[in-house]
Amino acid sequence: MVRTYGTRIPNLPKKELPGHLIVVEGADGSGRTTEVEMLRDWLEIQGHPVVDTGLRRSTLVSKQIDRAKLGHTLGATTMALFYAADFADQLENKILPALSAGSTVLADRYTYTLMARAIVRGATREYAEKLYAFAFEPDLIIFLDARTDILLHRAIAKYGSLDYWESGMDLSLSRDRFESFFAYQGLLKKEFDWMARTYGFQRVDANRTPFQVHRDVKAVVAALFGKKVRIEVGVEGSPKVATVPEVSGLGPTEGQNA
Amino acid sequence: MAPPAPGNNGGTGRLLVVEGLDGSGKSTQARLLVKWLQSRGYRVFFTEWNSSELVSGVIRRGKKKGLLTPTTFALLHATDFADRLERQILPPLRAGYFVVCDRYCYTAFARDTARGCDPAWVRNMYSFAPVPDKVLYFRVPVQVSLDRKLASREPISYYEAGMDLHLADDVVESYQRFQAALRRGYEKLVTTDHLVPIDAAKPVEQVLTRVRSEVKPLLNEFPKMETLVHG
Lengths: 258, 231
Description:
By secondary structure, chain A is of the alpha/beta class. Chain A contains eight helices and seven strands, in the order βαβααβααβααβαββ.
């Protein structure tokens, strides 16, 4: 039976779903998007068809959320609920059918990002947790954890500036965007640290190169599928093949539908 | 978004809610009440469910295309409510207005629960809403609701009839079953949330008299517009 965080949506099938749900969480600049792309390719080569999903992609509301963001018209509570509606639409119309079909669903962020954003904007942890209690418990939550100063440098290297929303400018923490970025990312980090403990995130050190991150991620994912993974040791040249021993700390899946 | 303490409506104003089935006459009575309060010199603000532009557009489109499930239906209506609360209800309430709401979170409690959503989940979703000073529940038998609906010649909408729940193939029969479920929900709220039941099957004049007598205690020490503007 699909495990949720406490609330079951109506019409949820009673039977076990054959697919797997893998979530990748991490701030902008943590290398999340790059990693999701690499992981998707790797999973499919390994024989696991992937359906990918992310935030703000539902057919129902994503366009209106974009519009609302452009106009900065919606308040914090409204925005939190709007995002929840967007998530629910994808959960019911994309994630659930894909899991039923036996696919591996690869989620580029999940409820955790949405919860963190709502909490730093004034929701209590309890409110956010209960709001998203209908979400399915993932088989694996990979948390790409990077230091704020590294996120900063990557953001500037990539965009040449700091994004309004990623700097949390709507929170009025500081009129200075640089200061606001640090303050906002710090607040998010606190929530992610709390959630990492509560929800059993697999923390991966994302202060390193994409190659190094990918190697660790593959090991964690391989363990989920009960596989040994071929790992290329060394960056270039003829790769040596090694097998990864048991990955320690896969404990969080305990109590989940692994 | 922290749940407010009971009785704390976030300001010096008054918050009055009218609830009830379709065709219970609550909107008519709300309109009459607003007129009466204004004529007596009070600052009144009136607001209806489902009136925020951005979100109600999504809801309309979702309904039209049949994209809504009980969960997204519930979340989108909560979004709409939150938007209206943040922008339209809280500011006048805090400024000291007498705010009259045609439907409030109790509609959602009854409706989303009838659609199979977890009652505790729905309640949490709305825990940011201030508790009203009074909630008038316009109580009518389902048959009266249906008769008034049919007499109005407005077609019964798909969601109003709960057709999405596949209770019956026939719209009228589905409407009756769905409204009966909503009614059971409201009756529970009379106990849990102190909704004040008003026999709305009676002639409108009698209902109006009853509404005014329920509202009068809320006007104690409530200043009129004149004193607010001119000190």
